[in-house]
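Hi Y.,

Following your request, here is the sequence exactly as I used it, all 487 residues.
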Amino acid sequence: MTEHLDVVTEHLDVLIIGAGISGIGAGRYLKTELPDTSFAVLEARAASGGTWDLFRYPGIRSDSDLHTFGYEFKPWRDEQAIADAPRILAYLRETATENGLDQHIRYHHKVTGVSWSSEHARWTVEVLRDGEPITLTCGWIFSAGGYYRYDEGFTPHFEGRDRFRGTVVHPQHWPEDLDHTGKRVVVIGSGATAVTIVPAMTGAAQHVTMLQRTPTYIMPVPRHDPIANALRKWLGPRRGYALTRRKNIAQQKAFWSFCRRFPGAARKLIRRVNARQLPAGFPVDEHFHPPYDPWDQRLCAVPDGDLFRAIRDGKASVVTDRIAHFTEDGIRLESGRHLEADLVVTATGLNVQAFGGVPIEVNGVPVRLADTVAYKGMMLSGVPNFAFAIGYTNSSWTLKIGLLCEHFCRILRHMRDNGHTVCRPEVGDPAMPTRPFLDFGAGYIRRAVDQLPRQGDRMPWLTSMNYHSDVKLLRADDVTDPELHFA
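Below is the corresponding structure, written out as tokens. Let me know if you'd prefer a different format.
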């Protein structure tokens, strides 16, 4: 990528890439904390909301409670604590409108490359606007596009798939006109998407089978939080929301810490809960007893135990086996068993893609992400004036996003107050040991770990997954650091 400063259409202080939950949050913090900052939110698609607008599969919902998945500054007022996508999308768009962000969001703006110039102390950003190339410049980039590809989900190769006479669909590309009424459905997968789709399809389908290679830890959670609803009624929406948020953060931390400190006891507890939810004599250990410890991968939540209820009612079943090949009318398993199917849903995961796959250059040299180390989980070593938003994998995503946005604004204010134009993290000890940025066992992370930044073995180069530690690091501690260079 080369710079074309002579054909630049506009210069802004900050460009936010992505108008999902992170980008809308970043825009609101900029608007509130630094109202004189010029910024735009570039969105490649035609609508805001990110994940919550993109995915249209049956039953799509959050797997975190909205009192922590929602923004700290905007109370969640709905009765549902585990909410469906339309409610979340309405909340996000209401946030954008209330904070005057609609005029800052530019749709059909796909960023295709960014290049930093130390000579000019700015980024040149190449954009396709409605398919036509334009060039913008900015002082800072805030990448808020998450970590997976929006245009392509992950589907492994299945032998004989072309022979199958039925329909195969990936949840990320769910057709609006897909009718599963009376059909035999096989959902391949055992993660959050699969456990959402299975009970949601049982109402109309003849039968739904969840076909998994390996079990996942699954826990029932109440869709409605009676304490939250009571607090909102007694104390009002803001105070009630704040107390509920504090309660739920403590609960999340306590359960995660229990699972990590006492994995054996956690296994037994989860198994006991699952057994109580399942029919008598159900083979719990075959289908709901993973070979890894709780929270080595993300634990799946099912609101009001809907997956277990579908199994009890005989509308859904679980099969743990490996696929040998597809047949004309179903799937042959390695055990020899045959699953008949009219519709196969490949809930087989995401394709991880850091920063929307946008190529990054610094002074004409391409940045290889695997050679960088993440500073405070929000910037990259050697890359000036570039921040990104990645949330928690062991808790509600947005808890961390809010703290990152606050810290980002504090950095910008520090630079303004001290006359700085450049901010660049640099690792002080080149021999510092590193490990993957997301030290997480999920398959979609393992497939892409060599394409992601690294993290170090000490602060500020550790990627914290602890909210209370991050409150201190990102909200309370000074923004200055010996390994963060201002110029």
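The first strand starts at residue 10 and ends at 17.

Thanks again,
Q.
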